[in-house]
Amino acid sequence: MTDYTQLTDAQWRERLTPQEYRVLRQAGTEAPFTGEYTDTTTEGIYSCRACGAELFRSTEKFSAHCGWPAFFSPLAGDRVIERTDDSLGMRRTEVLCANCGSHLGHVFAGEGYQTPTDLRYCINSICLTLTEKAPEEDPTDT
Ligand SMILES: [Zn+2]
Q: What beta strand segments (E) does 2-141 contain?
């Protein structure tokens, strides 16, 4: 099993396209309204494009009209790491994949979206891979 946190920059460059590398490994941001999943409503699981870890579900995706895919919650809290990001002269919260440490996007709170959490996980499409599947029937999932 690959320990993705131990990969070198050279190994990441081999695994990823230049565009993926720039966002996932250099905390870049894709241009708004260009990502392949911005308005996707297909049911399925969004995995980390760098390591394949399952990160988000279509059931928590919502239309934020912000230009990037938006989720109000990750698939599970331990799937992502959130850390303070003071770049660009503002305080934001960066979201990273907990499995491989790759940059995914940012999370914003209290914007007034009509979602259960009022959080907006603003994630670059290029950091995700959607696997289509119907939502699982899980009566214990509240
Ligand atoms: Zn990952």
A: 44-48, 54-57, 61-62, 70-71, 80-85, 92-97, 103-109, 119-123, 128-132
Q: Over 60: is that where the pLDDT of 79 sits?
A: yes
Place of tokens 């959607």: 130
pTM score, whole prediction? 0.91
Determine the residue type at 29. T
Q: What are phi and psi of 21, to 5 degrees?
A: -60, -40
User: How remote is the CA of residue 5 from the centroid of ligand 1, in Å?
Assistant: 9
Query: 103-118 pLDDT, tens per residue?
Result: 999 999 999 999 999 9
CA of 95 to the centre of ligand 1 (A): 11
> 98 C-alpha vs ligand 1 centroid, how far in Å?
7
Could you confirm whether 127 is annotated as catalytic? no
Query: Cβ distance 104 to 123 under 8 Å?
Result: yes
